[in-house]
Design a protein that fits this description.
mainly alpha
Amino acid sequence: MSLDTTFLTDVFIRLSAGVPITLTLAFTSISLGFILAFNLALIQTVTDRKFITWPICVFVESIRGTPLLIQMFIIYYGFSQFWETFDTLGVWWFFREPYWCSILALTLNTSAYGSEIIRGGLQSVPQNQIVAAKAFGMSPFLVYRRIILPLALRHAIPAYGNEIILIVKGTSLTSIITLVEITKIAHEIISQTYRTSEVFICASLIYLTINFIIISLVTVLEYLLSPQSRSTSASGYTK
């Protein structure tokens, strides 16, 4: 069987139309999710009051314990049953749109996983460095800003990079709630041509390219935030 380059080129062109919405979904949800995850992790770290940490734990474990697809179904299809209440509250415009429901589902999902990643990074900071900073007369706020947060984020970058990749792949599930992104366009092409393998291979290559770029950027960021790696690298070149 010969390779139909004309068909594959046409598929790539049609699938590329879904790349902007895929990137927008991923970038928006990751940005909002990071802000929420950071605050959740910070709250859990700085306080041990149960009435504050318990609701956060329930939220995190509920999100982590259920599939992203079901979360999208609940937000988009489930909440629509209460449209009259949402309309009275003036937020029905949000829940009736698949785009905003997708953003909400992806944001909540990545914030739950991200909060655990960041919390692990915060807890991994050596206590001797914190004690030394306090011994130099740093205030608690300065200790967090100059010592704890930089080290915690540096430790969390590799795991958070994996979470970013998972969210990019998770955007494919938004096709189930009628959002036209890469996977949705792929299904439409398959319904017209019945050529499943070629279409999904093209879609996979697009996702692979996006994630490869993300991996490269995360690697560069990890390198820039690791002075010891740069010094080792520099010393290697001077020999």
